[in-house]
UniProtKB/TrEMBL annotation:
The AMP-dependent synthetase/ligase domain, residue ranges: 40-415
Gene3D superfamilies in the cross-refs: N-terminal domain of ligase-like
UniProt xrefs under Pfam families: AMP-binding (PF00501)
Stored PROSITE patterns: AMP_BINDING
CDD domains: FACL_like_1
Domain of life the protein comes from: Bacteria
Organism: Shewanella salipaludis
Protein name in the entry: AMP-binding protein
Length: 572
């Protein structure tokens, strides 16, 4: 990278380089299920680069230029890729939201971001009109796809019409280059662990993520990626890697049809697979089941060179099952991070499986070593704002505290959320970049590996009148009870009894099991708790029929809801 490119950046330069180097090579393939058959739409690098150029020119002709903000609610498709790259090329700021966050959260996100443009499928536009999404600020509406009837309900101009209105040109679009830290996109968190917040992304952050995917994950041009998450799929063309998009609801990956995913992997001989932990579990079960009675043997995915899992902690059992179906040297790479900073650390399945005894004993989940360029520190637990970094705050190896990270892919703030930025960021004059408080708890071992112990908000500080008697952490505590054969999963919450904060564990039982309150199971779990110092003192349990979990990962438990439910079940 030249000195000029270091100072100025645009994610799309990678696409343009790929279009020149391998113009006819596959860039994107999108799977569709039609009439019981799977069909695919494809585009090569040259055509993707050319179409995104044309859209960028058309947006400018319509009066939409650099610095404008555009909501993008388009399902993964060829147009999704072309539109996203067009926005980046033109310096227009995409606003990316998770449709699964709910109508109320979506309206709040649009109110905060104040978009100038709303680009979406007809369904999104109907919702926009019905719920007044972005009504005070949106001046341009563009619909993508749909039939003539649905398009007529949107009150928006079609993408094809927008392109037809722009003057024809064979010239490449003059890509807008931005300073490394200037806002390039706003990515809203899902809200599964709190209120959705708009994370400000710069092209410098994207560049850092691309570099890590090359160096730490070993992704090379010419590979083919089966991506189940739209944002990650955009990195494919930027890496010279084809993005293969399966037929599925990206906001609810757990509902994906495993056969569709396997078919796409086999058709394109995908070398990379990006999935969330819930999908790792589902695909692993489907692969082990084989094709039914006629073919009971487990299936294999021989083309894969790696599997990347991110989004939530995956269970060691599901990782072990899936890893057995890969080649002997093919890693399942578990990545730790968040929308604000991704990736932070990584561990391969082969190494993770060797840590299972520590995890089962309540030692937390190992999420590996920091990726290149990332510095991880652990500081004492506090709810206070920390204005300036002080090394004196750093805890020793093995001590549990809040995870704090610094690196080129770490966001520097939230959009129009000064309070949230102040709570999550720490100024570091020595490092030149802000440090980010992950809101997660964990520790570093003697080798520098990071171990996750749960969300800071999910710890239980037992005691009365603010006086701490004992602190319990979610992941270490819950893992002890999850080892019991009758327990599918557990969730630590705090309840108030006689004015004292008390730990209580909600239980979701294994399928087909039932247990009455006060039965033998509770006695066994109390005895189990007394065997470990970090669970000693936990003596209250409640069986819940089905835990409330986030829609995307089907793994993040809404402990706040469980805490309210548990409190309502108790009589002081």
């Amino acid at each position: 990278m030249t000195a000029a490119q270091v100072a100025m950046a645009n994610l799309c330069r990678h696409l343009s380089l790929a279009a020149r180097a391998t113009p006819t090579q596959l860039a994107v393939a999108v799977q569709h299920s039609r009439g019981g058959k799977l069909v695919y739409s494809e585009i090569d690098f040259a055509e993707l680069d050319k179409r995104s150029d044309a859209i960028a020119f058309a947006l400018n002709h319509a009066g939409i230029g650099k610095g404008r903000k555009a909501v993008l609610m388009v399902t993964p498709s060829l147009d999704f890729f072309a539109l996203t790259f067009a926005l980046f090329k033109a310096g227009i700021i995409p606003i990316l939201v998770d449709p699964g966050m709910g109508i109320r959260n979506l309206k709040q996100c649009f109110a905060e971001a104040e978009p100038d443009v709303f680009i979406g499928i007809p369904k999104a536009h109907v919702a926009r009109r019905l719920f007044a999404w972005g009504k005070p600020s949106v001046r341009h509406c563009i619909h993508v796809g749909g039939n003539w009837l649905s398009r007529g309900l949107t009150g928006a101009i079609g993408l094809d019409s927008l392109l037809a209105q722009a003057p024809e040109t064979s010239e490449p679009y003059p890509m807008v280059m931005l300073p490394q830290d200037e806002m390039a996109a706003i990515l809203f968190t899902s809200g599964s662990t709190g209120t959705p917040k708009g994370v400000v992304y710069s092209h410098g952050m994207f560049e850092a993520q691309i570099q890590v995917l090359k160096t730490d994950y070993g992704i090379r041009p010419g590979e083919r990626d089966l991506a189940t998450f739209p944002l990650f799929s955009l990195f494919g063309p930027a890496l010279g890697m084809a993005a293969i998009v399966p037929e599925m609801d990206a906001s609810k990956p757990i509902t994906a049809n495993p056969e569709f995913i396997f078919a796409a992997i086999e058709k394109y001989q995908c070398t990379n697979l990006f999935v969330n932990p819930a999908l790792v579990e589902r695909l692993g079960q489907a692969l082990v089941a084989g094709d039914g009675a006629a073919a009971p043997a487990p299936r294999k995915l021989p083309s894969l060179r790696r599997v990347i899992s991110a989004g939530a902690p995956a269970t060691i059992a599901s990782i072990a099952r899936f890893a057995n179906l890969l080649g002997a040297r093919v890693p399942l790479l578990n990545s730790y991070g968040a929308t604000e900073s991704l990736p932070i650390s990584m561990i391969a399945s082969q190494e993770l499986l060797t840590t299972s005894a520590i995890t089962d004993a309540g030692g937390g989940i190992c999420v590996g070593m920091p990726v290149s360029g990332v510095d991880i520190k652990i500081i004492g637990i506090t709810e206070d704002v920390i204005g300036h970094w002080d090394e004196a705050r750093v805890l020793a190896a093995g001590e549990i505290g809040e995870i704090v990270v610094r690196g080129p892919m770490v966001s520097q703030g939230y959009y129009r959320r000064d309070g949230a930025s102040a709570a999550a960021k720490i100024a570091d004059t020595g490092g030149g970049r802000l440090r980010h408080r992950m809101g997660d708890l964990g520790y570093l071992d003697q080798e520098g590996k990071l171990w996750m112990c749960g969300r800071k908000a999910h710890r239980v500080d037992a005691g009365r009148d603010g006086r701490l008697s004992k602190r319990y952490f979610s992941i270490p505590s819950e893992r002890i009870f999850n080892t019991h054969g009758a327990v599918k999963r557990s969730a630590l919450v705090g309840v108030r009894l006689a004015g004292e904060v008390t730990p209580l564990v909600c239980l979701e039982l294994a399928q087909g099991l039932a247990c009455n309150k006060g039965g033998a199971l509770y006695a066994e779990l109390r005895a189990l708790a007394e065997q470990y110092p970090h669970t000693r003192g936990i003596s209250r349990f409640l069986i819940h029929p089905e835990f409330p979990v986030d829609i995307r990962h089907n793994a993040k438990i809404f402990r706040e809801k469980l805490a309210l439910w548990a409190q309502s079940q108790l009589k002081e």
